[in-house]
Amino acid sequence: MKNELQPEFQEFLLGFLMLKPITKEDHLQALDVVIETCNLLFSEMNSLKVKSTLDRDAKLLFEMTLRRSSSLRTLHTNVYEGLKHPIDPMSMWGIVRSQFEAFCNFNNIYIKTNSYDERRLLHELWVVSGLQYRQKSNSEAMNEEQLQKKSREAESIEELKELILTNPFLLDLGSHEIDKMNGFIKKKEFQVAFNNGKFNRVSWAQMWLNAGVNDKFDNLYSMMSNSTHPSNVSVFQFKDLHLEDHADFSANFSIKFSTLILCLFVRDFCTYFEPLKIKFLEVSNFNQSVINGYNRIARDESFKLSDVTLFNDTVAKILDERLKNLRGTTESGH
Questions:
Q1: Statement: residue 16 has pLDDT above 90
Q2: What is the pTM for the complete model shown?
Q3: Euclidean distance between CA atoms 145 and 148, whole angstroms
């Protein structure tokens, strides 16, 4: 006898599959729901008057993360096209890792800070780090225009150093923290967080947890790095991926994790740019529930942007059981 869900459960099941995707289509549909919502928010963002460099960079971090999800979707499609030399799904993880870092950096600068001066300090530290690394470029290989740009950026670096070391928030902390900040500048470090009255360097993995993410997700950065760097672990993972035909799983998992990152970013982006919360409430209840759901799963209830949900925990358990029954029926061929 064919095991089917009643019509009243179908919308719940669809929402459930967005949060716990199974097939390639489930993964892509979940990502599409979030991309659609991001595009609506980004359109609204364009109508806001964003003047400061601080806020423009916040917008660009979000846009960069959104566009990379679209790029991932294209790569994911190529994995399944049966090409003679299909896209290696491990290459998708480099893009996901860049999204992970963009989200962590945004959260650290724009959400975890408690004042404008503290936010400006971490933003300027991030900017000066990037400019210092670019100064290492070989001048002999540059044309006149590039040399002039390098010279201007060298001047900007000195100006930024002065702004950082005379920031009122930093000055109030005393000479020890000023010296520590000067050390961060010299080492070109920007992964710095303020906690318990002190600035300390933090890893990407710690920044992820600082964003409110459950510690059950704490090993994901290492996993992404193993898929990105040419380490021996990466090489034998590549071998096993194709010998054991795990390519589908890796491709789908990268899409799922990209979807999760984007959902967390939507919440933080709307929290920083508060007018976007109003726009979020205008998107469909289904889209709201998916983004709220991912934030509930990875963080907790307090990170929802609205109270909209298509199902509660009780309904989710019922659906989970019915889904298992459906899988069993499909696998048995009945």
A1: no
A2: 0.85
A3: 5
